[in-house]
Inverse folding.
């Protein structure tokens, strides 16, 4: 047996080894950030933004916007704004629809030609920062006219898949119009039919270059690097915005992975891809634009879990090393970019002086994605969130996993406690904590310090779940007394809904059956006509998703009552009369959405059209997220009103939930929402007495303030604050974490900056029942 001293030395050494890669990656990330600044500043100093909206300029701006999101550099944002204003937020400017064309052309009548539509990507990005109908009016006019025609052959060249596919997904995300996704699939099927090589997983530039009709100089298939670079990068952008439940999502995922495999297979030893990907001798030497798009596409796949590091990291890093060491020139210029064209041209000179706007845009995309990769484990905001949540969760789960929570928890109850069984405290603490922590625990394991904390808590949580329903455990919860267990059983059910595969699926069959039994017996509780109806609905919908017998009436009657209680602009009344409190945050928005989603997942058919109800409820939740974000003051505070205010940051749950589900509405960007939530956490938790001597939460709002407790409040109730931590369910490379922190709305408003106007929010109106 080793001594305690030896154990400490070993642990410290292991920690040191763990930290070394992080330190090295942080240094490398700083270098890449300086390269991004050097390259982008060089380009903008030497090129005015007052240029047309054709594809080459527009492709640069897709890279510039990514650089803005990563860095928050307002000058770079202003550059793209000037460009958009110069072009009147249009592509080709023809207004006579009878003359609109989509063959190659650089005139104002080539409105339907994709090279004039890529600009809409940047316009949509700028709209999402500051919603203004003028910014996407032309984009919608053009794309919605195009989709109204019977034609499907708009994307007849591979470049078009980068130019327009992301436009379709970005506008769908803004408008919710399903036609964008229907036509996205229809149009790419046509593209595949004329220029996709299913054997190689690669695209020819267009139908003229299909083998064997066309061959490279040495008789090989001639895949043009920039052409396939456009497609890989375009697919990455599409997957970033496609809804998780989109029926053809797997088609795009498989196509992206197949293309990545084809790309990696023909990388040159120098890290670049030759212009003719299968025939280096056809047009020898390095080329930057295709290489940059490939590097971006591969890194994006690694960062977002589609591609494994083991298989793709080497190719991605070799690509980056070429970009950094060969393409990048000392003055910040990007060289070795093949000029505008459509194929690999034998004898064409491409050297260090060969540069272009689209090549710089591609380089910026790759550099930004590499920075996200390097910084994944070192985001200061994420570390703060993780450490705070771990501090909150560990005393509960470490005790409960051993069956000692009821023995060791230092319980506090309201000065006006109503006399109910104090054992409700333990169920409240466990259920509410798990509902907040479930998305984070559902992430896959990794070798980071955060990953070690997450794995530890997940193991403790699984043991705690088992004890919670084991009648022989000292921590068997208060399932069968009082009415209160209905509430906190709903939060336990919600935790399973939020981390189904990681938390419900691994449970042994005995434990699952015990949960089903406990959830079912709670039908003994007759919920009052308040938010409590959703507690029953949440439990029953979890039973449906788990394949257990469930009560449709309890679910559907709750849905109908919630619909009656919607008062508009994101607010629900808590029962027949409106109360100005935060129960729209604590219960209504999250549990209503999750009940509907669970019924969709379970494929239950009743009178209620669950998908349409879900879409309408989502619009309301998005509006309420806007309301909540605007309530956060420049100092990181929010108004304190209504009952249950000791639930602390649970007030902001719908805002956190929209971020976690990647459903933030226009006007709320990842960087600003993270910055706002983090500011509130610091104001609420730093230097205040939020934890008692046993490590458990104290009754209060920002510190120990027992006088604000309601008659039902105990310090188990307060673990509701964990519900604001839902975005930890997004990986560390996600833009929510890797985008630069940006001022939130009130901070902009009170500092004389432009900020979005507010307005009434239409939820889409009445939804008819199925029968």
């Amino acid at each position: 047996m080793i001594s305690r001293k030896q154990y400490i030395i070993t642990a410290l050494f292991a920690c040191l080894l763990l930290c070394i890669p992080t330190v090295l990656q942080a240094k490398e990330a700083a270098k890449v950030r300086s390269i991004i600044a050097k390259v982008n500043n060089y380009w903008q100093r030497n090129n005015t933004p007052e240029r047309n909206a054709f594809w080459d300029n527009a492709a640069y701006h897709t890279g510039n916007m990514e650089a803005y999101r990563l860095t928050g550099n307002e000058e770079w944002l202003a550059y793209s704004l000037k460009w958009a204003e110069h072009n009147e937020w249009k592509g080709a400017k023809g207004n006579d629809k009878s003359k609109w064309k989509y063959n190659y052309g650089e005139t104002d009548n080539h409105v339907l030609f994709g090279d004039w539509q890529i600009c809409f990507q940047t316009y949509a990005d700028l709209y999402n920062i500051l919603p203004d109908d003028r910014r996407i009016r032309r984009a919608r006019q053009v794309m919605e006219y195009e989709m109204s025609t019977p034609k499907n052959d708009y994307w007849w060249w591979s470049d078009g898949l980068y130019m327009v596919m992301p436009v379709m997904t970005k506008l769908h995300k803004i408008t919710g119009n399903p036609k964008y996704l229907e036509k996205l699939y229809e149009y790419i099927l046509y593209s595949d039919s004329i220029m996709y090589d299913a054997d190689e997983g690669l695209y020819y530039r267009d139908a003229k270059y299909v083998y064997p009709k066309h061959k490279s100089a040495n008789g090989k298939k001639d895949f043009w690097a920039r052409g396939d670079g456009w497609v890989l990068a375009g697919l990455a952008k599409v997957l970033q915005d496609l809804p998780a439940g989109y029926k053809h999502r797997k088609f795009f995922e498989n196509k992206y992975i197949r293309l990545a495999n084809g790309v990696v297979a023909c990388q040159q030893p120098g890290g670049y891809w030759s212009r003719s990907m299968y025939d280096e001798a056809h047009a020898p030497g390095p080329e930057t634009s295709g290489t940059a798009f490939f590097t971006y596409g591969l890194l994006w796949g690694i960062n977002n879990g589609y591609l494994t590091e083991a298989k793709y990291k080497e190719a991605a890093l070799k690509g980056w090393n070429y970009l950094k060491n060969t393409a990048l020139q000392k003055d910040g210029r990007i060289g070795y970019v093949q000029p505008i064209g459509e194929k690999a041209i034998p004898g064409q000179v491409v050297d260090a002086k060969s540069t272009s706007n689209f090549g710089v845009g591609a380089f910026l995309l790759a550099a930004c994605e590499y920075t996200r990769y390097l910084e994944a484990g070192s985001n200061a905001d994420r570390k703060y969130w993780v450490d705070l949540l771990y501090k909150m969760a560990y005393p509960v789960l470490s005790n409960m996993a051993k069956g000692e929570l009821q023995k060791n928890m230092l319980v506090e109850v309201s000065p006006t406690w109503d006399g109910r069984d104090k054992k409700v405290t333990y169920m409240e603490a466990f259920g509410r904590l798990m509902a907040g922590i479930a998305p984070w625990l559902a992430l896959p394991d990794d070798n980071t310090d955060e990953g070690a904390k997450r794995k530890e808590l997940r193991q403790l949580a699984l043991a705690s779940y088992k004890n919670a329903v084991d009648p022989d455990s000292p921590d068997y919860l208060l399932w069968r007394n009082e009415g209160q267990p209905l509430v906190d059983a709903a939060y336990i059910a919600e935790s399973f809904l939020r981390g189904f595969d990681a938390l419900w699926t691994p449970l042994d069959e005995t434990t699952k059956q015990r949960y089903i039994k406990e959830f079912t017996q709670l039908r003994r509780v007759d919920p009052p006509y308040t938010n409590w109806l959703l507690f029953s609905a949440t439990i029953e919908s979890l039973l449906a998703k788990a394949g257990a017998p469930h009560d449709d009436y309890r679910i559907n009657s709750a849905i109908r009552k919630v619909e009656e209680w919607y008062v508009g602009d994101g607010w629900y009344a808590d029962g027949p009369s409106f109360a100005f409190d935060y129960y729209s945050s604590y219960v209504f928005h999250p549990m209503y959405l999750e009940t509907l989603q669970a019924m969709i997942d379970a494929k239950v058919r009743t009178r209620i059209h669950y998908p349409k109800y879900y879409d309408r409820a989502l619009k309301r939740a998005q509006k309420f997220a806007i309301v909540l974000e605007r309530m956060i003051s420049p100092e990181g505070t929010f108004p304190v009103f209504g009952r249950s205010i000791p639930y602390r940051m649970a007030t902001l749950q719908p805002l956190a939930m929209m971020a976690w589900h990647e459903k933030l509405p226009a006007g709320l960007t990842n960087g600003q929402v993270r910055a706002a939530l983090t500011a509130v956490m610091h104001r609420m938790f730093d230097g205040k007495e939020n934890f008692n001597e046993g490590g458990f939460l104290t009754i209060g709002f920002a510190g120990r303030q027992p006088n604000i407790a309601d008659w039902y409040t105990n310090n188990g109730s307060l673990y509701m604050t964990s519900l604001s931590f839902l975005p930890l369910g997004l990986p560390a490379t996600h833009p929510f974490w890797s985008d630069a922190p940006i001022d939130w709305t009130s901070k902009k408003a009170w500092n004389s900056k432009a900020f979005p106007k507010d307005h009434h929010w239409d939820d889409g109106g009445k939804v008819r029942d199925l029968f």
User: Anything to note?
Assistant: The CA atoms of residues 101 and 381 lie 49 Å apart.
